[in-house]
Amino acid sequence: MNPKGLAPHSNIGASPEEAERFLAAHPEIAGVDLILTDPGGVMRGKNIRREELMAIYRHGRYMPGSILSLDITGEDVEETNLVWADGDADRLCHPVAGTLAPALWREEPTAQVLLAMHELDGRPYHADPRHALARVVKRFTDQGLTPVMAVELEFYLLDTKPGPDGKPRPAPTPGGHRARHIEVYDVNLLGEMWPVFAEIHSCAKAQGLPAQTVIHEYSPGQWEITLLHRADAMRAVDEGLMFKRLIRGVAAKHGMQACFMAKPFAGRAGSGMHIHLSIADKDGNNLFADGDKPEGSLMLRHTIGGMAATMAESMLIYAPNANSYRRFRRTSYAPVAPTWGINNRSVGLRIPAGPPSSRHIEHRPSGADANPYLAVAMALAGAHYGIERKIDPGPPITGNGYEQAKLGALPQHWSEAIEAAENSEFLKEYLGKGFFDVFLAIKKAELDRFMAEVTELDYQWYLRTT
């Protein structure tokens, strides 16, 4: 069935020829996972059979708009007005070009494709986070500027069985070694875990994902794999989401659980999602470079100025969950203030060392639990805000940025971040008020539901003492 006002195939999504070529090249594929990313960053959708795919590329697929109203547990948030206020109405989802790819970790030969949701008349659905990013990117492209970026994720590989204390623990390597010490950059441990990473690389190659360097990070069982920069912000973030799902899938195949919580262990490092960004002109020149100057160009400093000025009110995007705020501790490699520096990991906005042609910003506040569409949208929004207003970030931090950070410069807790976001005209302007209202309603509902739970710590602290 074709919705009124749409041709058999509009220019909203990917072309049917993309699906035809894919199916011809992969006769073994039996099913396809349709994936829609909700405001919380959770991938939701359904599995279809091979013979259903072409109809979706020609006409789209109806799904309830309430999928984008769900909290982190999958429960409706009626305050979004996306559930019963409109009778839980369907919207139309279209495939995202370039994201149809085999999911080689699945037992049955399966593919996957990302979706974006639209109104029945073709307008972008206001609650879809991918559209929020697209609106911010358009501000740059309308000015002849191209964000060049990559998403870098840290994560833990955990045992599917808890430890003797009932809590999560690092997964043993295929050879049986279980990391108990930090062992940062340990190549022997990397070698022992290589069967997992070799399959991750193989699956990434099949999906066209530019996975590169693998390192063991600053905690037992914590890892990082870098993705190559793209001169296409939408594609770069799609790749970040696809890669996150791929890591989960391959880990599960090897009897492990990939964990992207911001802070799964109190005494160990949290997991961040670092956003690497530069801006190119229409000829591909890096506008952040200025000869051999390590601090880069005036545009780079204005970008930092805008990112720093808007960081506090954007923290609900970068750190969207209760657990997110456990990550921000001094000397933890997570930033505690909107500071910047050159070749300095104690700040929130870092200019990495490298030749002038590679001059870029590493944006460090986001946790691995953040929605990549939204985190990148707000990092870019901060950049645009600073460039437009020529904001001076002040001198860079030298030495230990934690010692020089102003306490309270960023929200310290989830409730503070929600309040800062609610009062932010910047977020409403760049995310769009429609999306902003949905996201804020979800986060307020989550806070209320989270605080209503009685935890094990409540019993430990208060059962006998009050």
TrEMBL record:
Matching SUPFAM superfamilies: Glutamine synthetase, N-terminal domain, Glutamine synthetase/guanido kinase
Transmembrane segments: none
Required co-factors: Mg(2+)
Domain GS catalytic: 129-466
GO MF: glutamine synthetase activity
Pfam families for the chain: Gln-synt_C
Any single GO BP term: polyamine catabolic process
The entry's keywords: Ligase, Magnesium
Family in the record: Belongs to the glutamine synthetase family.
Protein name: Glutamine synthetase
Record organism: Hypericibacter terrae
